[in-house]
Amino acid sequence: MHGIGSDSEESVPGAPESTLYSFLGRLSAALAGSFNARAVWQLRRQIEYQSHLIRRAEAVLANTEIFERASVAAHMGVWQCELPSERLVWSNGTYDLFGLERRSGIVRSDILRSYSDESLARLEKVRAEALEAGTGFGLDAEIHDPAGGTRWIRISATVERENGEPVRLFGVKQDITEEKQLFERMRYLAGHDVMTGLANRTRFQARFAELCEPGGPGGVLMLIDLDDFKEVNDTFGHALGDECLVEFARRLSALCQSAELVARIGGDEFAVLFGPAVGPQRIEAVAQRIIAAAEAPMNCSGRVFRIGASIGYAFTNGGAPAAVFTKADEALYAAKAAGRCAISSCDTTRRRMTAGDR
């Protein structure tokens, strides 16, 4: 390799001698020797090139810092896993997702302990499939940080291959805990009555249809309508009426813990679905306990009052949902017609005598 003043070979930007240390050595030699126009020209080219490299490095560093700040603010991070060593390289945002100190030397086997059992099983499955096929994968996973918190993260991964063999996995991990909570809340609201927490009419109809499917399990539909509830609303107001509904829903749920579903399907109308193992005698016993619970004094906002309940029920017996519901509804109306606190099936109607009747 010739010196800076040689006429036989030009320095090529980007070649090994173009490193900063080589450049400084050549600059020192040129300053120590006699004036050489070609050497000065080469040095000027080298200075311009080195300045260009420095500007590019500064831009990369600035962009890297901006990306790090943005990813941390967005609760996401970049990750890389080298194969077959399984060595992990994480950005700061990824450390933060797992609640870990930002450091090097993290071990994948240790990180896997952060995943819930179900999420870990799914992760290992889709990861193995992706490495086999050479494709990427996406996965929502539940993790637990050292402080005991639980998060949901969305993992996206790409497989890099060389000569047909996977050599690297890389991608992004993002905190989706709030998104998951919102989704679960929306799903809950889609199937539950907001006031009482019981199943709503939509969820009731779906489960009822399953019980009535041809060849399905079958069961019993019980409809419950509160007695004297309108008077409560008219006398004490709707706010206290709502408290009354919530309290009755609590009592009903406690009595029907073995039921398939307990639902509020209207203003003061409730429905309970029982499975096929529940026979007529048990249904009658449950109905009697529900009426007794409805009659027990209600204490809402410091006011004590009484209501009652009427019940109608019908066995599915392979009937269509609409037909079974009609039978139970007719039995409920028969119970209402018989007087306060009555129980009716499609075949019989009985009135339960209360303290006020005797």
UniProtKB/TrEMBL annotation:
UniProt domain PAC: residue ranges: 137-188
InterPro entries: Biofilm_reg_signaling, GGDEF_dom, Nucleotide_cyclase, PAC, PAS-assoc_C, PAS-like_dom_sf, PAS_fold_3, Rev_trsase/Diguanyl_cyclase
Pfam family, one: GGDEF
Domain of life: Bacteria
Residue ranges annotated for the GGDEF domain, each copy included: 217-348
Protein name per the record: Putative diguanylate cyclase
